[in-house]
Amino acid sequence: MQARVLLVSSEAVPLVKTGGLADVITALAVSLRKCNIDASILMPGYAAAIAGAEAHAAQSGQPLTSVALPRPLPGGPGRLLQGVMPGTDVPVLLLDTERFSQRRANPYIDQSGQEFCDNAICFSDLAHAAVAICTGETSLPAPHVVHANDWHAGLIPFLLKTAGLHHIGSMLTIHNLAFQGNYHFDLAAQLGLAQMPSDSIASLEYWGKISYLKAGIQHADCVTTVSKTYAAEILTPRFGYGMEGVLNARRHVLRAIPNGIDSDVWDPQNDPLSRAPFSIDRMRGKVICKSDLQAMFGLLPVDPFAPILGIGSRMSHQKMADVALQALPAILDRHERMQLVVLGCGERSYEEGFADLAQRYPGRVGVHIGYDERRAHALHAGSDMLLHASRFEPFGLTPLYSMRYGTIPIASRVGGLTDTIADAGMQGAATPGASGVLFDGEAAQDMEAAVQRAFDLYGSRSEWQAMQRNAMQTDFDWQTSAAAYIDAYKEIAAGEAKTAFRTALQPKTAGNVAAVAIQAA
Ligand code: ADP
Ligand code: GLC
Q1: pLDDT by residue (tens digit) across 75-108?
Q2: Which of 354, 350, 326 is nearest to 341 (CA)?
Q3: Does residue 465 sit in the same domain as residue 482?
Q4: From ligand 2's centre to the CA of 225, what distance in Å?
Q5: Which atom in ligand 1 lies closest to the alpha carbon of residue 344?
Q6: What pLDDT was estimated at residue 452?
Q7: Do 198 and 244 share a domain, yes or no?
Q8: pTM exceeding 0.90
Q9: Which ligand has its closest atom nearest to the C-alpha of 311?
Q10: CA nearest ligand 1 atom 25, residue
């Protein structure tokens, strides 16, 4: 028997992506399938997702098939479109509803930058659709484990329990605790929750509201998060975003399973999206990538000796975009030869701030508001350093991408960044094994000091090359993470499915599990 896992997420590459969640979902599904787990993905049928899946279906000659749902969803009628995630062998189910199909540019935010007012209903629909698959009332086989990701899928564990589907294991993974999906109780009827017993509904209550994330935390058989440090941090008031009490009460089911990265996609030796290949022992290609980046972002002169600082992330409060905008002028003034490349989008005021910076330092600062993979690969391959500041960081994929290309991260000492970047220390020679610079604090001076530290190390060729080697050698392969997930699925699966998950854990991968599936408590 093959074990079946249904991954439920609001985004997954290449169909829809606003951040790292999308990378993680598809990479995990691919890795699980390599371990002989029948993993599939359920996600919203946003206009772009359906268009992407249809284009792929037309190309591959395998049209999307329509799967009927047994009854209307709380938000209205819907159906599932079944296809294959482009570029993979992963089956994907797109929940096609009127509401989701109207979302075009951004899945969460309307044109005026406000959260869509029907988010509660849309993601309740997603949860109800998942449960319909689990009841066996569709033509699809019910999964043995449902793996819900972030608040968007948080209602699923709750709905499974209230539907009496105790034989299906439920996992909730927290990728970002700051987003919780908290809505007025008045909406309960519209969300399909009105008939629930009152003590069940009470378990979703969070400061007078219904919380989708709390629903997941309270009712999932296993709660995971994406790094060891973040798993400990979220139990504290500073990082718990008000959920620390609930999480502490559930810490016996909390596990840390670090993400991996797709080392085939981010591979300096074989990257169709960067200008020239290179490796630890043959770094000449990085110089070509650097001049490519300089030309792409209009930096002058195209000088291999001009240190390039890259920033590539969502422009948000989480990523300390406000602090970067305060600190960067002083950094640019201090280092006259330095060039800055910025790629990203997010809150409008930050986008404007970076665009102004480019105007203020023409030829030295290149900014692209938006995101595309070609520019992202050029940035990671061609920069010397990557500035990745975060007030909190559950995992942080971006610095790991840059490390693969010998681009040294300068990052906040929080969450996953603490676990994945070996800090050079703030003074003197870099500590042995260092792969980046970590800093504490959220003030402009803290960031400036960290960048200065990186520049000091950059000034010593041997120190820098040693750090580049360490960074490029760091291994974050997905198979290790997939093995840890399978181990956790095995714990929560029932009956024969338990054995199927156990069998999928080949001895080769099982050995890694102890190292990564760290009990957070
Ligand atoms: P987060 O998920 O918090 O944004 P991560 O570093 O874990 O942080 O993942 C970010 C992912 O999103 C990376 O794959 C990065 O290349 C990508 N990315 C960064 N900025 C954007 C953007 N503006 N739009 C879409 N994807 C982006
Ligand atoms: C979230 C986090 C990020 C993490 C990603 C994937 O968006 O902010 O740190 O890497 O999810 O788990």
Answers
A1: 999 999 999 999 999 999 999 999 999 998 889 9
A2: 354
A3: no
A4: 10
A5: 23
A6: 98
A7: yes
A8: yes
A9: 1
A10: 18
